[in-house]
Input
Amino acid sequence: MKRTVSVFALILVLLVGLSLTGAATGHRVAYIINGGLGDQSFYDSGQRGIERIAEDFEVKTTTIECNFDPAKYPQALQSAIQWNADVIFVISYGFEDLLKQYADMYPDKKFINIDTVVENSADTITSVDFIEEEGAFMAGVVAALVTNDTSLEGVNPEMVIGAVGGDEDPVIKAFIYGYEQGAHYIDPEVKVETIYAGTWTDPVKGKQAAKQLYSKGADIVFQIASLTGAGVLEAAAEEGKYAIGVDSNQNGLQPGHVVTSDLKNVGDAIYDVYQSIVDGTFEQGKVLEYGLANGGVGLAIDEYTEEILPEETLNKIREIQDKVINGEIEVKRYQG
Amino acid sequence: MKKQIITAFIGIIVAFLAGFIIMALQGYNPAASYYQLFSYSLFSRFALFTTLNKAAPLILTGLSAAIGFASGAVNLGQVGQFLIGAMGVTAVGLWVDLPAPVMIPLLIAVALSAGAFYAGIAAFLRVKFNMDEFITTLMLNFLAGFFTLYLISGPMIDEKMYSPMTPMINRGGWFPQFGGLNFAFFLAVAALAVIYFIWNYTKIGYEWKVMGRNALFAKVGGCDNQKNYVRVMLVSGALAGLAGAIMVLGGMQHRFVKGIDANYGWDGVMIAIVANNGVIGTGLYALFFAMLQTGAMGMELETSVPSEFVLVLQAITVLFVVASRESAHLLFNRISVLLRLRKVRSQERVSKGDDSDAAFD
Output
């Protein structure tokens, strides 16, 4: 027994001795997410921005995943501080008030909150807010055009389109609000059916929800559910129907069935903000808005889309997109 | 006992060695990663206290599973009892506002009874309709999950927040912190001590133990198995309910957040299994797993090893310890028999060695 203890102690001492040497100088950038990477959607989009920062600016970056475990939220913030991060990008769903506390405690750190607006009393948190309604409007336009075009394979005469959301939260409601506006802009007769899966991490539930919508006569389902949405795309392929991806370009995940993706360029926004910090044009405590006009949101139209939709439909989509950008079509914002 | 400690140590060391190889194959630096694992879970005050705070719910769900399994009551409803316990204290904490010395004991009582009530449903179904608690507790987990999700995204939602959660409970119900170490940890240790005492030093604990070993023998010996079964279920549920409550009262958010149960329920079951349903073992493994889960963030931060990697370590530890428990005991027995045999043989040779040599000549 004594020997085991001493061997164990020796191992510990060795481990301590092997500690990391030569910490990088310069900026350290942390990316804290409430969920987990690998969703091929929202969180991964942000991660691409972080990777580009690491490459282009030669700074040390790290990503902290909380995997939706509330016990990890304070630990994540504390660890980022301990790690000596100078700039902290954070997706703070579920711990907005913790973020406020930490931002008040460490006013010299740059906290950039992504996707929602969080304001602390010292007003040091910068928020990156996306105009989801505009991207979702375009998704609604595409969905309505698809369900109207019975010449497309698998499209029935019923005018129903669907959407699968993760949680019933203000951001997802804003998506739905924009989606409906877009669909009704094309055809006021189109009916929008929505299911909230109640989870961001369960593709099986997403698949069930999508199949339910398809059985109600929907031809196309818009997924707004992170990893849960991967199941929606699968269901589209299995049923021979269509789906719209979200946040990242998901068109290639189920070729021939994902018509387009409503991009939320989290990664680009993160890169932009960091660029502005380097340039010195960064303004702390502001709310930065990213919409269709400045490329924060928008549709991913690529060869997969061209395979599914005829040229004239694509032109019509582009035309409407231009109108939204130049203000001819006004997309109403969701009010809580 | 000594054998158990040796198996546990071997299991942990094998898991770490296997992890070392896996990390090296994936191109990470295993030594630096392990250092960070310990550094972010033990080597600073904040790290150590985070580990202890994390261990608190694991100790409680582990105990809940352990005493259930050891008494022959297969309570797999820790998840549900956890959620109902957490929801119970949230509801009471939102509507009752008292000074802390009154409020905290009240909320602890609420948590215990909410968890016990929820486990009691399964016990009732077993006693009245002979429905296996193995199934009913599992099913009740889903009910609790959807019910609480409905409450936090509907009637009890905090409209100002971007994801489903209730408002904060009243301040009197917040557990005190001692320099970062939460009162929840002491509560969990106290629960462990109470269960240890009941289990080893009281008549009822003895009856539960006998029921778990052989229910028929307990019955023949004059124990009221039905009554004991219900009691075990209630205590087991109460412990899981308390685990849920400390996530609300002891956390930093003081509200019922979506996903509050994380994986505490199932981790508890795993801890009980790997500890062979022993009370002290459950406490130690809870600390060990809490350390792994806490340190995972440090590995991810410093050497970018994905935090999921500790799940691999956990799984290897569990597999090795559980799978090798029986065979290791057999092995130890065989070794001791061989040693004794050799001793006997050599003694025999000494006593009659001369004759046999002579015969060959």
About this structure: The mean pLDDT of chain B is 90. The CA atoms of residues 41 and 165 of chain B lie 28 Å apart.
